[in-house]
Structure formats: structure tokens, C-alpha cells
Amino acid sequence: MPAETVNGARLYYEESGSGTPILFLHGVMMGSRFFTEQQDALAGDYRPIVLDFRGHGRSEKTETGHTLPTYAADVEAFLEQRELDDVVLVGWSMGSLVAWEFIDQFGTDRLRGFVSVEQQPLDLEGDDYEHGVFDFDEFVELMELAQTDPHELGRVFIEQMFAGEPSDEVARLLFDEIARVPPSVKSAIFFDQSVRDYRPVLEDVDVPTLVCLGEDETLLETGGVEYVAERIPDADLERFADSGHCPFLEQPATFNRVLSDFVDAC
User: Fold this and answer.
1) 104, 204, 206, 216: which one is catalytic?
2) Could you tell me which residue ranges the AB hydrolase-1 domain spans (predicted)?
């Protein structure tokens, strides 16, 4: 099994192809298997790499370290050990939060470009931010569900991630990946990612950036994704009219073409 031990955690990864490295970072409670369509399609021209965060997918289920700063430090250590530079970082959902944390901690010297897929800089609603995903009471309910019925929490997420009904195969894939994450990890990282605010970091993203928005979104507030595109200095917004939260799964051919064009232009 391909793995790198970084910061005391054994992380599962896969890579193929050659050329510009493209590192895909998955969402909270999700996993790298969601990017299979990208691995297969992009390997002819690029070097796609997928990575499971600690506690997720096929990586080690560590008891500690389930914070965005630790996940970002794991990414930096992984890049260092794999001797990867000039990387295009693709963050989906929480993966974008990890990427912003990475940029805040380590800068952009290793990066050629950044792709943010379906994420706003802050999940929790506040008096000074109108694009939150949930208010405090809803947040408490989800945190409780993570401990009392984690499989139901997975179903809640899956129901809101697609513009239409996912195929049985895709639905099983999503549920299988979510079920791999222990409830203690679910609670820890879901809490951490929900309360962090990356609005101040957006202006520090000084590499070419592509922001991807599924226009048929029900999980997020689409204005929050547009907010990201407006505030990152060198960002373009790509809209996927027939997608919800997972354009790389819902419209893989279109997503791969858009991503390829972006990488070639960086």
C-alpha cells in the first residue's frame, strides 16, 4: 500500500502519470476515492496525486491531530518527502480550507496554481457573514448526530451533495468512505473546520486560482463560493450548471477539461 509517514501519521496516497503534479484534497469525512475519474483521465498529460487525510479513507486512524492546521502541516510534510514543487493544489470542500491553512502557514512557493471546488471561507453563520452553511443550533445538532448516529450523519451529507440522484454505485462509494471515519474523528475535524474563518487569508492567495461552483447547490450557500472568487486577487470563477457539491463526480468530463485548461494556462 503506498503510504508516507508524516508527523507521526501514516497517510495513504496514489499517484500516476508524469508532468505537472496535481494534488487533490478531499472533503470532511470523505476520501481520495472520490477523484477516480480525475486520476484516470489526467494521467496521460499530468501527474495526478490523491491523498487521504489522517483519520480518513485508508490513512491511519490517529487519535489526535484532527485540526486544519495539522492537516495542512501533513500536506507540507508530504510534499517535502515526495520532493514535490510547482504543484497545482485542488481542494474540494474542506480540502479548500486545508489549502487556505496551508497557504497561511507555508506560503505559495511550492504552488503553481490553486483550484477551490465548492467551499466558502467560513461555514458557521455570524452577524458579519451572511454565507454560512448552518447556524449555531444546526451545528450543535450535527455535532450530536456525529456521536449518536454517525451513519445518519453520512446520509444527511449525501442527500445534499448532488444536483440529482447519484447512482447506486456512487452513493455506496460516498457512504463507504464516510463510514471509514471513526465517530471521534468525525466530531473533532467537523468541529474544527466549522469554526475556522479564512476570510483574511483569501487576499494572500497569490497564484493563479480557479474557483468552481456547482450552480444546483443545496449543501452550501452559492454566494459564499462567489465571495471566494471575488476576493482572491487572481481568481476566475467556473460555473457548473448541472452540478451540486461534486462537479468532478457529476460532470467529470467537463470538470477534467476545465481543470486541464487551467493547468496548461498556469
Assistant:
1) 216
2) 21-252
Q: pTM for the full model? A: 0.96
> Using CA atoms, how far apart are residues 53 and 69, in angstroms rounded to an integer?
12
Domains (ranges, CATH) in the chain?
Answer: 3-265 (3.40.50.1820)
93 is a catalytic site residue: yes
DSSP string covering 146-170 = HHH-HHHHHHHHHHTS-SSPPPHHH
216 catalytically annotated: yes
